[in-house]
Amino acid sequence: MSLATRALWAIDRNLRRDLTLGSVADACGVSRYHLAHAFGAATGMSVMEYARARRLSEAATNLAQGASNILDLALEYGYASHEAFSRAFRAQFGTTPDAVRKDATTNGLPLLQPAKPRDDGPMPLNLVRTEKTVALSFIGMSEHVPFSDNHIIPAMWGRFMPRYGEIEDKADNIPWGLSANVDDDGNFDYVCAVKVNRIAAVPKGMVAVRLPPLSYAVFLHDAHISLIPRTYAMIWNEWQPPEGARVADSASLERHLPGFDTNTGYGGVEIFIPLGDVK
Question: Is the pTM of this model over 0.85?
Answer without folding.
Answer: no
